């Protein structure tokens, strides 16, 4: 049997390798999207691909680890927004911050477009973001700042619309997506002459 100190050193090495792999995966997926391979990540991390496979059995497992971490950070941003006195302004600010994160990560945008089952950490982070956004929407409604008919269910489609602008050649210009985010957010705001929104899914 090995010495106890050797076992601790091996565990430290394994954990350090995992951190290096996740950090490299974050950078590689951000630049190349989910089409990047574990070989790409291993090369970027300066590790052998066998080391990567010992920590993560496939690319999906690594992508889930990378983006669960990133979505948890976005969830923390949404949680922090709950402390602002102006709920509508906090919601708009959170959307801009979250989309700015997405702009810097092709992989994150691709992940957000995907449907289907995801692992528990990703699902938990997504649910936390949705819950915090829902609370901001309800508070903005109570403060009279929200247009009649707007609900928490409108937030994800707005993010998807902005993502579509980011996907345009040139991303709509240096501030293109922010321009359209302002247009969309202003459409949520209560104001004179603004009637209720049509019910989602209602027939023409």
From TrEMBL:
The keyword Glycoprotein does not apply. One of its GO terms (molecular function) is transcription cis-regulatory region binding. This is AcrR family transcriptional regulator. Keywords: DNA-binding, Transcription, Transcription regulation. Pfam families: TetR_C_43 (PF21597), TetR_N (PF00440). The keyword Chloroplast does not apply. InterPro entries: DNA-bd_HTH_TetR-type_CS (IPR023772), Homeodomain-like_sf (IPR009057), HTH-type_TetR-like_transc_reg (IPR050109), HTH_TetR (IPR001647), Tet_transcr_reg_TetR-rel_C_sf (IPR036271), TetR_SbtR-like_C (IPR049445). Residues 37-56 bind DNA. Signal peptide: none annotated. Residues 15-74 form the HTH tetR-type domain.
């Amino acid at each position: 049997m090995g010495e106890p100190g050797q076992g601790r050193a091996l565990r430290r090495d394994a954990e350090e390798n995992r951190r290096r792999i996740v950090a490299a995966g974050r950078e590689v997926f951000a630049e190349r999207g989910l089409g990047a391979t574990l070989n790409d990540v291993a090369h970027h991390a300066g590790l052998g691909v066998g080391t990567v496979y010992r920590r993560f059995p496939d690319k999906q497992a690594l992508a889930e680890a990378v983006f669960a971490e990133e979505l948890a950070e976005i969830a923390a941003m949404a949680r922090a927004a709950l402390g602002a006195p102006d709920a509508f302004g906090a919601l708009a600010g959170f959307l801009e911050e979250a989309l700015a994160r997405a702009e810097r990560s092709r992989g994150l945008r691709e992940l957000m477009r995907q449907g289907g089952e995801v692992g528990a950490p990703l699902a938990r982070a997504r649910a936390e973001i949705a819950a915090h956004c829902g609370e901001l929407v309800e508070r903005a409604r109570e403060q009279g700042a929200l247009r009649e008919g707007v609900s928490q269910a409108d937030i994800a489609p707005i993010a998807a619309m902005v993502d579509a602008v980011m996907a345009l050649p040139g991303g709509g210009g240096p501030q293109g997506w922010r321009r359209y985010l302002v247009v969309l957010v202003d459409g949520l705001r209560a104001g004179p002459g603004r009637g209720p929104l049509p019910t989602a899914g209602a027939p023409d």
